[in-house]
Write a structure and sequence with these properties.
Number of helices: 2
Strand content: under 5%
Number of strands: 0
Number of domains: 1
Distance between the termini: 9 Å
Shape: elongated
Helix content: over 70%
Structural class: mainly alpha
Largest sheet: none
Radius of gyration: 16 Å
Length: 70
């Protein structure tokens, strides 16, 4: 149950990063550099958090016996 919630958090962070990248692209097209940079930073932070959480989950599931990993 907890692991499912954590994987959902990974997906949510990935979606947040993807949205921020799209918003940065849109701001770039409108020549709004400050806004573009802010969205790029948000995308980077969300992507980094998703990757960190993914690595924690993958490493912890490798240590669990197979019947407890799901």
């Amino acid at each position: 149950m907890v692991e499912q919630a954590l994987w959902a958090a990974v997906r949510a962070l990935e979606e947040k990063a993807a949205l921020a990248r799209r918003m940065a692209s849109h701001a770039h097209q409108q020549n709004r550099r400050l806004t573009e940079n802010q969205f790029q930073q948000r995308a980077h932070e969300a992507g980094h958090s998703a990757e960190l959480l993914r690595q924690i989950l993958l490493n912890s599931s490798k240590r669990l016996p197979t019947d407890q990993a799901s």
